[in-house]
Amino acid sequence: MPTIAIVGAGPGLGLSIAKVFGRNGFSVALVARTKKKLDSLAAELSESGIEAAGFAADVMDRPSLAAAFARIKERFGGIDVLEYSPASHNPEGGAEDHVGGATMTTPLNATAENIQPQLNYYLYGGIAAAQQVLSEMIDRDAGTLLFTTGGSSLDPLAGPPEFGNIAIATAALRAWVLKLNQVLDGTGVYAAHVPIFAWIGSGGPETQADTIAQRYWDIYTKREGAEHPYDIR
Question: What are the percentages of helix, strand and coil residues in the chain, rounded to 5?
C-alpha cells in the first residue's frame, strides 16, 4: 500500500488531502507539532477506513523531523508522496499583528531578524522535509513531492503589505521547488508547487478544504507542470 506523508497536517486542508489519498488506497502519515491533535486526526481517518498514524515533530527542529520520518518508515515502509504545507509561523508567539499565528511585517519594517525565522520555517523546513524522502525516491525512480504556500509566493500583491516577510520566505520555497522540478525532469520523481489564492473555508464551495484537496489528487495523477495555482480571484 502506498503512503503519503503530510507535513503540517491539521483539521483543514491537511485532513482533506489525507481523506482524498486515503480513499484512493494510500496509508497516511500525519506530521505536526502536537501529538494530541495528530491522534485526533488519525482517529477520524481510521473511522473512515483509512490507515493513518500521527508523528509529532517540529519542522524548525531538524532532528525531531528526521526522527519522525524514521518512525514513519518503520511503520509504513517507503514514502511515495510528500505533501508539505506547514501552518503559518509565529516565532515570537506575542501579541503583534498576525493572521493564523503568523507574525506579519511590512516591507518598510522588514529586517534580517524578522525575515530569517520565516525562511527557516518555509524554505529550510521544506528542504529538510524533502531530504527525508528524496534520495530514496531517486533510487526507486518513483515518487511525488508537493509543496503548498499562500498565493503571495507567486504574486506578492495578492496579500496585504503586512505579508512582506512571509511572501519573501514562501517565494524562496517556490523558487527551490521549481528548480527541483527542473532537475527531476525525465526521472520518475515529480515535484510541484501549489500556491493557494483563497482563505480556506471562508466562503463558498470553492474555498472549502475538501474542494481544494481534490486538486492535489489531480496533480498527483497527471504529473504535468511545475506549478498549479489554485486561484479563485
Answer: 50, 20, 30
